[in-house]
Amino acid sequence: MSLLQDVIATGRFVAYQPTALKAVDGKLTEADDASIRADLETLRPWFDGLITYGAQNGNERVPDIAAALSFRAVIMGVWDPASAVEMANALAAWRRNPHIIAGLSLGNEIVFGNRGTWRDLRAHLDKVRAEAPGLALTVSEPFAEYLDHPEARAVLDATDFILVNIHPVFESWFKSGTADNWTDFVVRVVARLEAIYARSILVKETGVPTGPVSAGFTEEMQRAFYMLLAQRLPPSRTQAFAYFTAFDEPWRPGDFNPVPGNHPEEAFWGLFTDRRLPKDVMSGLPKLKQ
């Protein structure tokens, strides 16, 4: 936990999926090492922490490449904790890189997406804890699941830190709001979680997409959100936020989404385009001292 707390206090996390990884006919392509390295070289001047979403299709090699590029920490994600192959990949990556893997996140929105239950998550946590007692563990769900679901408390009490998604964009008042009330919403949710769970809190997903323009989203909105949130939620050893997400994913609207309907904004969450070109938000983000 010391590694995680050090980086959330003094560094900067970004959620990351390789640009070479895409869903084609429901199956993920393989991300090659050269492309992952190019992604991480693009990110490294501004970020020293990564949060990933899976441990296969190339994602399992992200910690190795990140270590070579002097990233300080990786929170490794496992998309399907019930997958023996994916779990083996994740634990092997941790054993290769115990100095950089600060934690393991079991699933992403499993309960919210109806891919499993809180009881399932607790069983996964207990199993991994027995196999890797020195590894910090968590799960990742939208904040409402943590605050409102009666079974959440017992599971989150078994984690080492809180990894949470807080998206003002999905609240009904968002489009009539401003960066002021969007960021205020995130800060208030973090405060509520902090009052319940005596653990470090890292907001894994938040932010503003930059498109589609027809829906009113712009790069200026994204920049304003992050600049103000950085002031209102300054990093400490107990709370911080990650930037979401590193690169645009044009294929994402056609992929699985737990919420029915069309979601064209899913293609535009990146701080960079899928060709690794920076958006306006990056011009306001200071580079890290290396």
Describe the overall structure:
The protein is an alpha/beta fold and 290 residues long. The protein has one domain: Alpha-Beta Barrel (TIM Barrel), CATH 3.20.20. Helix content is 35%, strand content 13%. The protein has helices at residues 2-10, 33-43, 62-68, 84-96, 118-131, 143-148, 152-156, 179-196, 219-232, 280-283, and strands at 13-15, 23-24, 27-28, 49-51, 73-78, 101-106, 137-138, 140-142, 162-165, 201-205, 239-241. α8 packs across α9 (219-232). The protein is globular and about 50 Å long.
Descriptive terms for the model:
290 residues; alpha/beta; TIM Barrel; 5-stranded parallel β-sheet; 10 helices; 11 strands
Please describe the topology of this protein:
Elements: H1 2-10, E1 13-15, E2 23-24, E3 27-28, H2 33-43, E4 49-51, H3 62-68, E5 73-78, H4 84-96, E6 101-106, H5 118-131, E7 137-138, E8 140-142, H6 143-148, H7 152-156, E9 162-165, H8 179-196, E10 201-205, H9 219-232, E11 239-241, H10 280-283
Parallel strand pairs: 1-4, 4-5, 5-6, 6-7, 8-9, 9-10, 10-11
Antiparallel strand pairs: 2-3
Helix pairs in contact: 8-9
Mean pLDDT: 95
How many helical elements? 10
Structural class given helices, strands, pairing?
Answer: alpha/beta
CATH uppermost class: Alpha Beta
The count of DSSP E runs of length 2 or more, i.e. the number of strands, is: 11
Structural shape: globular
